[in-house]
Write a structure and sequence with these properties.
The chain is 81% helix and 0% strand. It is mainly α. One of its GO terms (cellular component) is plasma membrane.
């Protein structure tokens, strides 16, 4: 009995212990924000049903959002290093709340376009600041676990927010905008009150991204990240289209299978994050990329909800392996005074992937399932190989 009572707390401490209190404030704010993330998953439905836009018009509006998001993290990276982590994160969240409400009450096409551009510009401003805060607050040995816990909190909040958002949308879309805005304000206030400013006192002489772009290891890792992001972006772009249009699954069947992704992450990821964090980062990340690529390649052969769930389980396993590793690698490569800009370049790869994924995936899917999903599998393997090549340089840092 006594041994059992000792083992359980020891296990809990190994998963969540040893991290500073400001980190948990940041984690709590991230969770609250993701619990309230309801607008973006339903934007297309809102634009076509509530505002009466055509599919082409809705696509144009989403393209404007994408243009804003391409600039978002680059701008935020500079602000994080120059203005401060806490101010950038809190300011970005307040700006996101204002843009959300502006979009919710916009009725004309010009107003919707302007609101969507601003929303794209500010919605991810918090990411470089959050990544830099974790790097500043948490020791290098604990960073993979800390970034993994943030990833877990994001997925936990998002899964609940999606469920609640679907129910609330039936009662009026404006509820989604208000809850999203209020959760953003709550995140801003919590960080401002409970998280100290951690920006180093030294000022970097360079004004932009030149010094980051001269770091060949970081640029190469950004390309690996682009491959990773292209894979992940397919889950929100071409995977739903392929399953409903080609495999002929219903939206309900697709949603049921995709729910497995969130369940596995919420249940499994916190149990293994500490163990994964003690492995070599480059090799672990390469393994995760290869498994993700394998999962997407197997999607070629999906014929039913069950087999879709099997492939989702495979690439989710790879997603769990990679969780937290990328952020810790960026923190390792970045000088303390440039962590915002390094994180901004890392985030820029994800924004580019969100634009490229449908542009590349659509024509490939027109050719056939194999053309798209074997290509994605190849992207995963090439990215994994690139990560292994980068391993020695990252270990030297």
């Amino acid at each position: 009995m006594s041994s059992a009572t000792v083992e359980k707390p020891s296990f809990l401490r190994s998963q969540i212990g040893g991290l500073p209190r400001p980190f948990w404030a940041l984690w709590g704010g991230t969770l609250v924000n993701r619990l309230g993330t309801m607008v973006m998953p339903f934007t297309g439905v809102y634009l076509t049903q509530s505002r009466g836009l055509s599919l082409t018009g809705a696509g144009l509006v989403m393209g404007v959002f994408g243009a804003g998001s391409l600039l978002s993290q680059l701008l935020a990276g500079v602000l994080t290093d120059r203005v401060g982590r806490r101010a950038t994160l809190s300011g970005g969240m307040l700006a996101t709340a204002a843009a959300m409400l502006a979009l919710g009450y916009s009725t004309s096409v010009p107003a919707i376009l302007a609101s969507m551009f601003v929303l794209g510009l500010v919605i991810d401003v918090y990411r470089p600041a959050s990544n830099a805060l974790v790097a500043d607050l948490v020791s290098p040995a604990e960073r993979p676990r800390a970034y993994g816990l943030l990833f877990w909190g994001i997925n936990l909040g998002y899964s609940v927010g999606m469920t609640a958002g679907g129910w609330l949308a039936g009662h009026g879309f404006i509820w989604l905008f208000w809850i999203d805005a209020l959760s953003s304000v709550a995140f801003a206030v919590l960080v401002w009150r409970a998280v100290p400013e951690t920006r180093p006192a030294e000022r970097e002489s360079g004004g932009g991204f030149g010094v980051v772009l001269r770091d060949r290891v970081m640029v190469a890792f950004t390309l690996v990240t682009l491959g990773h992001a292209l894979l992940y972006s397919q889950t929100m772009t071409m995977l739903p289209v392929a399953m409903t249009k080609v495999v002929k699954l219903t939206p309900a069947q697709f949603g049921l299978a995709m729910a497995l992704n969130g369940v596995l992450i919420v249940v499994v990821q916190p149990l293994v994050s500490g163990w994964l964090g003690r492995r070599d980062a480059s090799r672990t990340f390469a393994l995760g990329l290869a498994v993700i690529g394998l999962g997407f390649a197997l999607t070629t052969f999906v014929t039913s909800t069950f087999w879709l769930a099997v492939t989702i389980a495979v690439w989710t396993a790879g997603e769990i392996v990679t969780a937290g590793i990328a952020g810790s690698i960026v923190a390792t490569l970045a000088p303390a005074e440039l962590r915002g800009r390094y994180s901004g370049l890392f985030g820029f790869a994800w924004s580019v992937a969100a634009v490229l994924a449908p542009l590349l995936g659509g024509p490939l899917l027109d050719v056939g399932m194999g053309a798209l999903w074997f290509t994605m599998g190849g992207v995963g393997l090439v990215s994994a190989a690139g990560m292994l090549v980068l391993g020695p340089a990252i270990r030297r840092r």
